[in-house]
Amino acid sequence: MKIVILTKNLSESNGWGRYSLEIVKRLKKNIEVEVLVEGEEAQNLKVLKSFISFLKNLILVRKKARKADIVHAFDGWPFGVYGYFAVLGTGKKLFISGHGTYTVAPLDSFLKGFILEKAYLRANKIFCNSRYTASEILKRVSRAKVEVVPLGTSQFTEVNLYDDKTRSIISEKNPTVITVGALKKRKGQIYTMQAISILKKDFPNILYVMVGDDSDVSYKNELIDLIREKKLEENVLFLKDIKDQELPEWYKSADVQALNSVNHDGHFEGFGLVILEGYQFGLPAVGSRDCGIEDAISDGETGYLAEQKNPEDIAEKIRIVLEKGKLSFSEDCQKYSRKFNWDKTVLEYLKYYKH
Fold this sequence. Notes:
This protein is 42% helix and 15% strand. The protein is of the alpha/beta class. The chain folds into 2 domains: 2-152 and 340-354, Glycogen Phosphorylase B (Rossmann fold), CATH 3.40.50; 164-339, Rossmann fold (3-Layer(aba) Sandwich). The strands form 2 sheets. It has a 6-stranded parallel sheet, with helices on both faces. Strands 9-8-7-10-11-12 form a 6-stranded parallel sheet, sandwiched between helices. It starts with a strand and ends with a helix.
């Protein structure tokens, strides 16, 4: 059995790349795998900038699929469409992984939606990372064959609590809230920061640490303006150059992880893998309802779900975690994290490949 996989990248520096890497390396133990990623090299998919690059990608994928039994696209747009044209008129199997925004948002565009709907109806199965993602697809393509297949979580090595770097920033006396993810509207950092402003009245030394890319200058400036308005200069920290191997220090040193994502312009949080990463170190989470995070947080056991764009509710849920204490959630967090395993994910994929 041979499979062609279509994905954006295989980089460890982002969630999409980590997902792709974890799946590909396990699939290679069982079947022959060829991976096509976006890039400048001739054998790669062209970054989708024009109709010409779109056509070139269709031709390349169709050519590669000739010698394969299966095409698996690691998202709906544009990879699911490439996969659709690659198997069109053949008996080859097509699978599409649905992760969130680019699985759903293009369906609301006339032309993209028309093509992507055809891809979804042709797919043997659409693997969704959460019940929310699956429901959003079915709202738009009711006959799509969706299946919720939980993702895994990368296993970190154990770390010592408070190494020199984190000790210089975090005091054991300061309650610390952390958000891991790029600074962007969809991640909702501004609502968490408003919640921090509310909590500061009772926790004057509270610290909010945002770890992630800050290339969205406009949004970062919004956050900086809010910091000045609420006088949070001593309570907020931006960290953009933290390596993956350094994340465990922050997960273990923090008291609660906040991922108060918002549904914004058709974009939504498909799941929230960083929450599971934090669980490995017993870190409870507060995250948004009405998105894929509902599958990542067991409400009341591993943390709490809060209403989107509601700083008061977010603050109240963080307050409960801080008052109960991290340790009262830690065992449930670690137990919940173990349910999400890349080996299990791949076994589910293989089951449908061979079906």
